[in-house]
Amino acid sequence: MQWEIQARSRCCTKCEKEFLDGDTYRCVLAYRGDEPLRHDFCEGCWDGKEEFPLAQGEELISWWRSTVRIPPAKPKEEVIKRSVAEELLRKYLHSPDPKHANFCYILALMLERRRVLSQKHTIQEDPSGKTLLVYEHGKSGETFIVIDPHLDLSRIGKVQAEVKEILDAEQKAQEASAAEDETDQSEGEENSLKEETEQ
Could you tell me which of 194, 182, 172 has the C-alpha nearest to residue 80? Predict the structure, then answer.
């Protein structure tokens, strides 16, 4: 089963009031058939645990209380590293390759340590026996559902090294691309200035 990344709603599912920085809200995950759905409610529309405002045919998976936070700007290098890790998590999250499940697990742990992701719930799927970890992105409010591959301690180091190698390569590629874009922009500005002076 593939799990889509679902962003926090910009407004309350029920009253459509826009969420602002510092607002608390309740997130509800539910199934409709095999499809996971996300609903976000402001505190004013929350009716409590016993009265989840779900649509007909939806089955509750999990719920939690969270706060909308817009973090302060970080140094460019750190932002790039976090951005690369997030991009790789998004890239590998739906891959059928079991090896990529290991990557996603390590990437999610890295982003959790950096307080980009926050673990909200653990789901035990029956009869598959899979353990699913539900994370929420602190800034965007997106939900990430990652398989826990139950890595042995002896394998964690190897997977971490592989993830670091991929992260470093991806970051170098992004930095090279950014430098190339800056060069192209500078050349374009110089040519434009030259044309204006010649006229």
Answer: 172
Number of domains present in the structure of the chain: 2
**CA-CA-CA-CA torsion sign (14, 47, 28, 85):** positive
Cα 190 to Cα 182: distance, rounded to the nearest angstrom:
12
Upstream peptide bond of 149 is cis (omega within 30 degrees of 0) = no
Contact predicate 36/29, CB 8 Å = yes
Cβ–Cβ < 8 Å for 100, 92: yes
Q: How far apart are CA 104 and CA 163, in angstroms?
A: 9
Give every CB contact of residue 77 below 8 A, 6+ residues apart in sequence. Answer: none
Range(s) of the domain holding residue 30: 1-70
Residue 191 and residue 112 share a domain: yes
Residues 119 and 77 in one domain: yes
Residue 51 burial (CB count, 10 A): 8
Please tell me whether residues 93 and 39 are part of one structural domain.
no
Q: Nearest Cα to 137, choosing from 121, 109, 118?
A: 118
| Distance of alpha carbon 27 from alpha carbon 97, whole angstroms | 30
**Predicted TM-score (pTM) of this structure:** 0.55
- Burial pattern 121-149, b for ≥16 Cβ within 10 A else e, equals beeeeeeeeeebbbbbbbeebbbbbbbbb
Per-residue pLDDT of 24-53, as tens digits, reads 998 888 888 777 888 898 888 876 555 556
What is the DSSP secondary-structure string of 89-130?
HHHHTT---HHHHHHHHHHHHHHHHTTSEEEEEEEE-TTT--
